[in-house]
Design a protein that fits this description.
By secondary structure, the protein is mainly alpha-helical. 29% of the residues lie in helices and 7% in strands.
């Protein structure tokens, strides 16, 4: 049984790849509701169907889908930096609307033909144990390859889940702007990925290589007891 940290169809699939025949979902239901179970089932069906497509024949199962950023936001730096609520959202919508008036609404890419299916969709049981040959020991890993979280402000919906989980269960490495609600990752980030697991927006938070040395915070240094002369 695969348990602990299953918060998506993708993570459930990873447990199957590691040999689990059944998975348990608990915290995700507590954080949301029972409907996530059906979401994960639909997600697993999607992953299996993706293996039937000719254009995804080389897909390795580890490439996450990219989030959709409105083209208007990408082209307007002022809107890109604005949060998604209150006065900021109204200003964002106004900037995008003004930019849309300058664009040719008929200038859209031609629709792509449906990809061909090269095989039938595999079953979940066919995924069990697929990664066993690639599993090694902890000592095989390079602990000098560290990552930190990076927030894409254009995708952030300012929900604060990353801030709460880092504050309560992580390393208090996220500051939350009281006015704009935009999260800021500090140098205290250890790359634990808790923020990624709770973020509801795909690719809003990504893990990138750490470019500065990490100095662990061990708390208050213990005091050395004074030496006592015993006669």
């Amino acid at each position: 049984m695969g348990t602990g940290g299953i918060d998506s169809a993708d993570s459930a699939l990873q447990f199957f790849h590691c040999g689990a025949g059944v998975v348990q979902i608990c915290s995700a239901i507590q954080n949301q509701d029972f409907t996530v179970v059906q979401d994960y089932i639909s997600g697993l069906k999607t992953y299996l169907f993706m293996q039937t497509r000719e254009d995804l024949a080389q897909w390795d199962g580890q490439s996450p889908p990219k989030g959709i950023v409105p083209s208007g936001v990408q082209a307007i730096p002022e809107a890109h930096k604005l949060p998604h609520f209150g006065y900021f959202q109204l200003k964002r919508q106004k900037l995008i609307a003004e930019d849309s008036l300058k664009r040719d609404l008929l200038d859209v890419p031609a629709p792509k033909p449906a990809p061909a299916q090269i095989q039938k969709a595999p079953k979940v049981k066919d995924q069990i144990g697929k990664a066993l040959s690639r599993i090694g020991t902890y000592n095989d890993l390079d602990n000098k390859q560290q990552v930190v979280a990076l927030v894409d402000e254009s995708l952030c919906i300012n929900c604060g889940k990353c801030y709460m989980t880092c504050n309560d269960s992580g390393y208090q490495a996220i500051k939350f702007d009281p006015k704009t609600h935009i999260p800021l990752i500090t140098d205290d980030c250890t790359g634990c990925t808790l923020c990624v697991s709770v973020c509801p927006i795909i690719d809003c938070i990504t893990m990138v290589p750490r470019t500065i040395p990490y100095k662990p915070n061990r708390g208050i240094e213990p005091k050395v007891a004074p030496s006592v002369n015993v006669h």
